Amino acid sequence: MNEKRRCAFAVCGSFCTLETALEQAQELTARGWELLPVMSNTAARCDTRFGRAGSWRQRLEALTGHPVLDSLQAVEPLGPKNMAEALVIAPCTGSTLARLAAGLSDTPVTLAAKSLLRVGRPVVIAVSTNDGLGASGENIARLYQRKHYYFVPYGQDDPQAKPQSLKARFALLPAALDAALEGRQLQPVLCPAAGHGMSFQQGKSVVY
């Protein structure tokens, strides 16, 4: 059976991690996934020192072969019309974490999550926030208590300069998605600080 599987892939405004996120989007397509790209309001509109919003949009559309979904109307059918098996949010910022934890669906990314959750599909979060061990920590904890939310394993990315910052280990995103589709959280969730540890997934060592 060669039919592709389809997943919605949403990016938020953690601009320093967009390049890494797109690398994993490309990895998912190489593994046979068809991706429906979603951009948050911030990611879709803000030019930064990491790149122009229009350039990120073009790259996402070229990589996935689909136009970016960047409105409430565009993402609302994802779940009811069975357009995707799952939603990946990579990167997921502190602002989006807060909205998800509060049950708000007022942005393309959070409404995409609501749309998939309403039909019991998994939402996989690759967190990237400078206050993951601060204000965003409680929102991460709240999502662990909700059905159908799963996390890409994460850890501190710069404990000395940014001691509250958390960042997903993006290389584990495909494995986290596979696990979520089986109804389980990829373990271990908490990783050593970047460059300071090793974990083992499916018999292979992964250096962080």
From TrEMBL:
Gene3D superfamilies: Flavin prenyltransferase-like
GO molecular function, one term: catalytic activity
Secretion signal span: none
SUPFAM superfamilies in the cross-refs: Homo-oligomeric flavin-containing Cys decarboxylases, HFCD (SSF52507)
UniProt cross-references to InterPro entries, sorted A to Z: Flavin_trans-like (IPR036551), Flavoprotein (IPR003382)
Residue ranges occupied by any Flavoprotein domain in the UniProt entry: 6-166
Protein name in the entry: Dipicolinate synthase subunit B
Organism, scientific name: Faecalibacterium prausnitzii
Lineage, opening ranks: Bacteria, Bacillati, Bacillota, Clostridia, Eubacteriales
